[in-house]
Amino acid sequence: MQQMAIAEIIFGPKHPNCVEPPRSQFNCSSSFAIATTGIFSDKLCILNNDEKVFRASPQHPLACDSVTSKGCDGGFLVGSMDLGRVAGFVDEDCLPYDIETAGECPVEKISKCKRSKIQDYCVVEGMEVIKKHLATSGPVAAMMHVTREFLVYKDGIYDESMSEYKLEGVQAVKIVGWDSDYGVDFWIIENSWGQSWGKDGYAYVKMGVTD
What we know:
Number of helices: 7
Number of strands: 7
Order of helices and strands: HHHHEHEHEHEEEE
């Protein structure tokens, strides 16, 4: 596979200005909130001709989704999406990410924040359907099992079927592209364990691997 910068693969070469550095969730099970607000912000940037007009705060669904979020104990992608659709996500400049206040929703503060709503969302299934969505609409949120090998991933193509030990829970990630190497197709995923994990915060995950 020809080596290229991650930013040249994400969203295709058309939208490099919409790429943000991978985040770190720190010691908090907030990947559901980071993935949801991340793909929303990416898609909004794409729709606005690669201009970053709004950055959704992951703190909002983490702390204020009273239906499905348990703060740093975890939550659900659908719950976060529903919050963005019904109430609109608040701007991150107004509500920064802070795991120390993950269980506290500052209602009065966010009432004054700029918001942007999800018009609608859908579930995409199947490799070809996901590829088409990535090419036309931007990143996709997905859930992954966490294995011992995934925790220490640094390079190469990660194959979950080769892992013998799965940890409890799942990790929400962003699928940002795909590629192939020596006949092996793989997704390019963005994780939220900081840029020191994997390939500067990204990983290559083999396609078509199921439980």
